[in-house]
Amino acid sequence: MPPSRKQNYATSSLVIGYALCSSLLSVINKLAITHFNYPALLTALQYLTSSLSVYLLGKLRLLRHDPFSLPTAKRFLPAAAVFYLAIFTNTNLLRHANVDTFIVFRSLTPLLVAAADTLLRSQPPPSGLTFLSLLVILAGAVGYVANDSAFTLTAYSWAVGYLVTITTEMVYIKHMVSSLDLNTWGFVLYNNLLSLMIAPVFWFLTGEHTDVLTAVNSNGGNVFDPVAFFAVALSCVFGFLISVFGFAARQAISATAFTVTGVVNKFLTVVINVVIWDKHATPVGLVCLLVTICGGVGYQQSVTVVKKPHTGKVDDELRELSKGDTDA
């Protein structure tokens, strides 16, 4: 087989792998939190899987990550704390709302980031096309909320918390992290390992530890039933795989192709969510969701810039990959 054809097959495999992981991840997380109703423990298991996988693959020399050091960990801790809060609020949002609601609020982040950059960081205001795209996103989101028959104050409180934490991470934390000069897998290791260390704090603050102990005692020492075990295991595996396939796919294809893949993934997530169960929006809500996604397409096209040469530091694109649990 000619080398060019082998390369095409390899690239196609990476893109397909990333598309499957990205489109299925939110649905799998929803399945996991539905059958295993312990968000703090679920996220801790995901962090454990990712950090342990990076460490073991590093030992096998299948990837290279920066060594763990206490001074770097201290500097990284604020970023890990915000990352943990973003994942924690995301998981609780999926716990109380459907996947479509999560996608709508995830799509709202460019609007808040643009506003924060302009008002708080004195960045130039969005261009005409960017502003129009942001308005489309907002209109779709407002239409979705207005037609959400499953609206609850609890779900939307978690949604607002998620928006605040993910916007904070995107606007501020990325600049601090880039100064640490970690490679991508070093970032994944620090992010997940420090988040794993933070997890017990929230486990006790939320009182979830008592719920888990009660479940263990009432089930003869077993907190998992077979369906819950399968869903949690799948969630942990896919949470790590999206980092693997996402990083490799971004290196193998152009930024535009990767953006298009991300948009297709959102549509696939909506389709899969509608097909497999009844935990989805109304027909009008789905139309508003698609409007929001289309606004996101326009936004991504309006802010596309030529990629800078790789500096060895974690840039904005690679940071998005290590947030595979939050990005649908």
From TrEMBL:
Task: Write down what this protein is called.
Answer: Sugar phosphate transporter domain-containing protein
Q: Which UniProt keywords apply?
A: Membrane, Transmembrane, Transmembrane helix, Transport
Tell whether Nucleotide-binding is among the UniProt keywords: no
What subcellular compartments does it reside in? Membrane
Q: Which InterPro entries does this one have? A: Sugar_P_trans_dom, TPT_transporter
Statement: the UniProt record of this protein carries the keyword Membrane: yes
Q: List the membrane topology term(s).
A: Multi-pass membrane protein
Where is it chiefly localized? membrane
Q: Which residues form the Sugar phosphate transporter domain?
A: 20-299
Q: Name one GO cellular component term.
A: membrane
Q: One Pfam family this chain carries?
A: TPT
The UniProt transmembrane annotation reads 36-56, 76-95, 127-147, 153-173, 185-206, 226-248, 255-276, 282-299
Q: Which organism is it from?
A: Brassica oleracea var. oleracea
